[in-house]
Predict the structure.
Amino acid sequence: MSGPPLATLVDAFASSPSPMVITDARAPDNPIAWANVAFLNATGYAADEIVGRNCRMLQGPGTDRSTVQRIRAAVEAAEPISVELLNYRKDGTAFWNAMTITPVRDAEGLAYFYAAQADMTHVHQMEVSMRGTNDELERLVQARTHDLTTALEQKTALLHEVDHRVKNNLQVISSLMLLKARRTPEGEARDALQSMAERIGALSTAHRMLYSEGDCTHFNLGDFADEFLADMNAGLDPERRRVEADVEPIALTAAMAAPLALLIHELTANALRHAFPGEREGRVSITARRTDAGMRMTIRDDGVGVAAASPNPAGFGRNLVEMVVRQMRGTIAWTDASPGTTVEIQIPIRQPA
Amino acid sequence: MGTGNADADAVLRILVVEDEALIALELECLLDDLGHVTVGVAGNATEAIAMGRSTAPDVALVDIHLVDGPTGIEVARALSADRRTTVVFMTANAKRIPADFAGAIGVIAKPYSERVVASTLDYVADRRAGRDGPACPDGFWPAPV
């Protein structure tokens, strides 16, 4: 085999910046036979302090025993191995030594082991500091998560508290009105107080629907209509008068709850009050359907009709309805359906996000 | 109100456990209109339990949040221990009711309407008189069986 002259090779090894060592596989306990200058510099030993001794002299208290075991097994089997091992210099300081140990054979078999090494301490230091940084980040994330969880719990508690107070206050307002109504002689003033209490009742129903589910920004119009009707029908003689609803489960923003509650209450109560004079039997129906632009709500009764109904001097109910429809940017149309009256309302809805 | 029943066995002796004076007063007037008798009004747990013992009411209408905190639950538990008393919660705080309803038969959610109070009391009277399967009124949420 041709190649560079042997002397050149020895020279190159001797002056290489990589620490190198050769051990004598045939001598007892595999002692170091030769080491280059880089190796002596890396370990702090002089040549005569290490030649003739086994490499284990570089091991110390922090050296991993299982890695040492792997090296020993490879050496016994005369197989090459690459490992990283914590070694110690002459002055006792530790360094991470990455080494490749290769068996060298001559005509008579295994003769030497050649080990090329590299100081990996800086890599290990970086790993350690990275681990420290990761631990610190982990700790920060945990602390932040804990803070956020606490803040959320506080927010939820506050929401419940405010919700409870609003409901309680609505109850107080309603009780106040009814108390005053009781002490007011029968007539217009008493009727006014009672209808105000009923309007507050409608707002209360709307409020009961909000926050009852997880989502406090939207409510379901179908559920609202059911709840509203339950309350309305509780006061009616089912044989004679009935309010029915056929309302699609439309998701609406919470801001629409109060105006819609007032609207439905006003139109329904109005129909019940004026469409069925005396003992006339009747039925009020509420339907709501989604349309491309929003929704169409129809409130229909089979009573005496707009023309025949006794005119309401104050017209407050109708005024209120028109105001609320305008607030929701909708349109309203009253038609005499003979029998009864049909009120059709179109309300634009922005798609819930 | 219209749904108030005049039958003798439908007249209920009722204890009102409510810390909000206006609500309690109005409720008392309503019960009177409906032909029932209010045997007492209590604003805190100790008072409520003592009144329950001394009057043994047919029905107790119990708010959860009282002067001394959310003590309506323990009031319900104490009052319903007496078999003669039927407990109904009336609260804006229905989320606080425990799974077993603390012995109450159901809840009227605040803000309530007078109609729901009236029909619930008719229902309670029917139930107490052992009349067959009275329909549960709208607006009243029964405790899980």
